UniProtKB/TrEMBL annotation:
Pfam families: DNA_photolyase, FAD_binding_7. It catalyses: cyclobutadipyrimidine (in DNA) = 2 pyrimidine residues (in DNA). It comes from Candidatus Nucleicultrix amoebiphila FS5. InterPro entries: Crypto/Photolyase_FAD-like_sf, Crypto/Photolyase_N_sf, Cryptochr/Photolyase_FAD-bd, Cryptochrome/DNA_photolyase_1, DNA_photolyase_1_CS_C, DNA_photolyase_N, Rossmann-like_a/b/a_fold. FAD binds at Y225, T237, S238, R239, L240, S241, Y273, D373, A374, D375. It is an enzyme of class 4 (lyase). Belongs to the DNA photolyase family. Its EC number is 4.1.99.3. Keywords: Chromophore, FAD, Flavoprotein, Lyase. The lineage of its organism: Bacteria, Pseudomonadati, Pseudomonadota, Alphaproteobacteria, Holosporales. One of its GO terms (molecular function) is DNA binding. This is Deoxyribodipyrimidine photo-lyase.
């Protein structure tokens, strides 16, 4: 019997995988395939930190297939060419996948579909990565929502969580020899220098680990989500974002377990948590309907905004040397762990775009290469939201004061102490504004401003005035 090719992309799991379930139901042997894309014109190729995650996630997925008596086939190159050749070699009559929604991926998949169909191959796409297809949730005029609240209200009115698809216990896997590549040949792990060493202490990629983490979050932490989610020193959020991005767990699984594993409690974190998944749906809807979102201002009035061009400031921000401890802690958390707390993402993004007046795209790019959860829809929307030029964005004049934000959301200074160790001996009174600390405290804490830790690269008050003026000029 000829095999069905099951092309894995951002769905590196067996549970609740609609393309896999459909392939199992068809009864033909399944050839699971992952293609590392090379030689394509994808403007947003895999970010550097994500290569580390992908390596381990693929390795876990392959282990799962080995236990089921098969393997994950790995290929490198142009998917169009690889699939075209593979269907001929194994005489496949069907190719299945779960849909992706990035502009490049939509274009690629359409092209490949047409091509395979012209070879007599049946291609089927499935909804495996979202609760709703972006074209399923529209306003009364039949167009895309531009504001989150009515969008999510509409989603909730349609949300009918059925039991998710279970993981097949047995699989009929294709085993004939196909020229396969080794995962190590993908060269996804960083070398010289290997800056991913800390990732191993913080993260455990793979479907099984995603399920464990979700269970732990739902059993112990979701009820305090509303209370704790804004405090970066506390483990108050789910930290599922890289698992969700790579599809090691589906959002349907999360919603199902959230709603059905116990009585769903509206007043606690459950509903707020659900609404964060709603933001993800909203970002995907925006990206689908406004495919230029990663590159261009959603609000075109911002096209005349006069951004600065200052490489030195950009480098200080990237390296966590701005002299504002909460910003620096965030940028160093990102570099050392491949992740950053949501509250801190907002603070550092506000600092880049409003204090330094650097274009949001520069921050977006840095996040793209350093975040393990880098996601075109969420990242572009997040940056545009903070910069004030996005859909339903934060008002431009809301300019975070990094000292007050630090004092409010890291009141003991523990988060700063963890990631900016040169300030760890300062008291909570000065840890967010070391330049105001008395000399004795600095000496006792072995802090030499301008030497062991920088002075602020820009004065908050002046930066605020400058940003407001720049905004006034485009209104
Ligand atoms: C400037 C900026 C850039 C961002 N870039 C990304 C990115 O590249 N990838 C990414 O997944 N998220 C991004 N976010 C959104 C958010 O910061 C992360 O999803 C969140 O911090 C991940 O941690 P968590 O899994 O513990 O989140 P939780 O609070 O546990 O939330 C659960 C899930 O909901 C989704 N989610 C939560 N908040 C948002 C949000 N504001 N927008 C969209 N989805 C959300 C994520 O999938 C997240 O894993 C960005 C936010 C900002 C302000």
């Amino acid at each position: 019997m000829t095999p069905i090719i099951l092309w894995f992309r951002k769905d590196l799991r067996l549970t609740d995988n609609p393309a896999l379930t459909a392939a199992v139901e068809d009864g033909a042997p399944i050839l699971p395939l992952y293609i590392l894309e090379e030689d394509t014109n994808n403007p947003w190729p895999l970010g550097n930190a994500q290569k580390w995650w992908l390596h381990h996630s693929l390795s876990q997925l392959n282990e799962t297939f080995l236990k089921l008596g098969g393997q994950l086939f790995l290929k490198r190159g142009n998917p169009q060419e690889i699939l075209g050749e593979l269907v001929k070699t194994v005489r496949a009559k069907e190719v299945y996948w779960n849909r992706c929604y990035e502009p490049y991926a939509l274009h690629r998949d359409n092209y490949i579909k047409e091509n395979l169909q012209s070879l007599g191959v049946r291609v089927k796409g499935f909804k495996g990565n979202l609760l709703f297809e972006p074209w399923e949730v529209l306003n009364k005029q039949g167009t895309a929502f531009k504001v989150y609240t009515p969008f999510w209200k509409e989603c909730l009115s349609k949300l009918d969580v059925q039991k998710t698809l279970s993981k097949p216990k047995k699989l009929n896997l294709y085993n004939a020899s196909v020229l396969n590549e080794n995962l190590s040949d993908f060269k996804l792990l960083p070398q010289n220098p290997d800056w991913s060493l800390n990732f191993y202490e913080v993260w455990q990629p793979g479907e099984m680990n995603a399920e464990k983490l979700l269970k732990e979050f739902l059993d112990h932490r979701v009820h305090e989500y509303t209370l704790k989610r804004d405090y970066p020193a506390i483990n108050g959020t789910s930290r599922l974002s890289p698992h969700i991005h790579f599809g090691e767990i589906s959002v349907r699984q999360i919603v199902e377990q959230l709603k059905f594993s116990k009585e769903f409690k509206k007043e606690t974190g459950d509903e707020v948590y659900l609404s964060e998944l709603g933001w993800r749906e909203f970002c995907y809807s925006l990206l689908y309907h406004f495919p230029e979102l990663p590159e261009r201002n959603f609000q075109i009035t911002f096209n005349d905004f006069s951004w600065e061009n200052n490489d030195a400031n950009l480098r200080d921000w990237q390296k966590g040397r701005t002299g504002y401890p909460i910003v620096d802690a965030g940028m160093r958390e990102l570099w050392t762990t491949g992740w950053m707390h949501n509250r801190i993402r907002m603070i550092v993004a506000s600092f880049l775009t409003k204090h330094l007046l650097l274009p949001w795209q520069q921050g977006e790019k840095w996040f793209w290469n350093t975040l393990l959860d880098a996601d075109l829809a969420n990242n572009a929307s997040g940056w545009q939201w903070v910069a004030g030029c996005g859909a339903d964005a934060a008002p431009y004049f809301r300019i975070f004061n990094p000292v007050l934000q630090g004092e409010k959301f890291d009141p003991e200074g523990d988060y700063v102490r963890r990631f900016v160790p040169e300030l760890r001996q300062l008291s909570k009174q000065y840890i967010h504004k070391p330049w105001l600390a008395p000399t004795e405290e600095l000496e006792k804490g072995e802090v030499v401003l301008g030497k062991t830790y920088p002075y602020p690269i820009i004065d908050h008050g002046k930066a605020r005035q400058r940003a407001l003026q720049a905004y006034k000029n485009i209104r």
